[in-house]
Design a protein that fits this description.
The protein contains 1 helix and 25 strands. By secondary structure, it is mainly beta. A hairpin with an 8-residue loop joins strand 7 and strand 8.
C-alpha cells in the first residue's frame, strides 16, 4: 500500500509544479503585452466645429475639415489653425494653442468672420486634479469679462471655481463691446474643466478706455498708460512685434501671467527687444526704464 501512496504524492507534486509554471508563463506574457502597450503613443480625443466650415491644421499638418468628429490624437500640446473654406466674403483664419490629455477630450468651437478681431473661439479640455471635487477654470481674451454659471454671477476672468458641483451647467461670459458667449458644459469629479474663450468684437463697437477707479480704501487706481515711447524702429534681435488684438492694445503684466497686475499697454505694430522668455510670455522694456511681460499670443517673434 506504500508504493501507490508515494506515486500519488509524486503525481500531485508534478501537477502543482506544472500549474505554477503555467501561471508564471501567463503572468510573463501579460507583463510583456502590458510593456508593449505602454510603449505605444498615449492618446486623447479632438473634436472641432466651426461656422463656416474650415480646414484644420495641427502643427501645420492638414488633418481634415470641420465638422471634425472625435478622433484619436497623440496627447500633447499643439498649434491649431482653422482656415475657412469659403472665399466670398474673405474670412479670417484663426490660430491658437491647444492641449490634448491622455484619454480626455479637447473641444474647439469657432465662429469665424471677416476679421480676427470679431471671430469668437472656445477651447475646452479636462485636466486631472488631486481632489475628488470638480473645478472650472475660465479665461478670456480680453480678460476682465463677467462670468455667470447657471445665471449666478461668479466673478471676472481669469477665474477658477472650485466649488462647482459635478454635472451639467450653463456658463455665460460677457464684456462691454464684445459678443456674449454661452457654453453648455459638464463637470466631472476629479477633473478641472478649462475653458479658454476668445471673445468676438461687436461690429462697430468702441472699446471703452478705463478711467481711474476707487478701491475699498478710497485710493484711486491709475489707468495703465499706453507705452509707445520705448518702441523701437530697428530693435536688436531677437525682438517682437505687437499684433492686432481685440482691444486695440496689448496689456503688459508685471509677471508672466494673465492674472498678474497690469503695468502698461502697448500698441499693435510696436517693436521691442526681448529680454527674457517664460512659459509663452516675453519680457520687454516698455517705457525705457521699467520692464514687464506680454503674452506670446499676440506677438510675432523675429530672430
Amino acid at each position: 500500500m506504500i508504493a501507490p501512496v508515494c506515486y500519488h504524492r509524486k503525481t500531485m507534486k508534478r501537477k502543482i509544479v506544472f500549474i505554477l509554471v503555467l501561471i508564471g508563463l501567463v503572468a510573463a506574457v501579460a507583463l510583456i503585452v502590458r510593456l508593449l502597450t505602454n510603449r505605444g503613443p498615449k492618446q486623447g480625443e479632438l473634436r472641432v466645429n466651426s461656422n463656416p466650415a474650415a480646414s484644420i491644421f495641427l502643427d501645420n499638418k492638414n488633418i481634415g475639415r470641420t465638422p471634425f468628429p472625435s478622433e484619436k490624437v497623440d496627447a500633447g500640446s499643439y498649434t491649431i489653425k482653422l482656415v475657412p473654406d469659403t472665399t466670398t466674403p474673405q474670412l479670417a483664419s484663426w490660430e491658437g494653442k491647444i492641449v490634448i490629455g491622455q484619454g480626455l477630450l479637447t473641444y474647439v468651437n469657432a465662429d469665424l468672420t471677416e476679421s480676427e478681431l470679431s471671430s469668437a473661439v472656445d477651447v475646452l479640455w479636462l485636466e486631472k486634479i488631486s481632489s475628488k471635487q470638480s473645478e472650472l477654470s475660465v479665461t478670456t481674451t480680453p480678460d476682465g469679462a463677467n462670468v455667470l454659471v447657471d445665471d449666478v454671477t461668479r466673478g471676472v476672468t481669469p477665474i477658477s471655481i472650485s466649488d462647482i458641483t459635478p454635472g451639467d451647467h450653463t456658463v455665460t461670459v460677457s464684456s462691454v463691446g464684445f459678443l456674449t458667449r454661452t457654453l453648455k458644459i459638464r463637470t466631472t469629479p476629479g477633473y478641472r474643466l478649462i475653458a479658454e474663450m476668445k471673445l468676438g468684437l461687436t461690429s462697430g463697437a468702441q472699446i471703452p478706455v478705463a478711467s481711474p477707479t476707487a478701491t475699498p480704501s478710497g485710493k484711486l487706481t491709475p489707468t495703465p498708460k499706453t507705452a509707445t515711447s520705448s518702441a523701437q524702429a530697428n530693435p536688436e534681435k531677437p525682438y517682437l512685434i505687437i499684433k492686432d488684438t481685440p482691444t486695440g492694445f496689448l496689456r503688459v503684466r508685471m509677471e508672466p501671467s494673465s492674472s498678474a497686475t497690469e503695468a502698461a499697454r502697448v500698441n499693435p505694430g510696436d517693436k521691442f527687444t526681448i529680454l527674457d522668455t517664460q512659459n509663452g510670455w516675453y519680457e520687454i522694456n516698455y517705457d525705457g526704464t521699467n520692464t514687464g511681460w506680454v503674452s506670446g499670443t499676440y506677438v510675432d517673434k523675429v530672430e
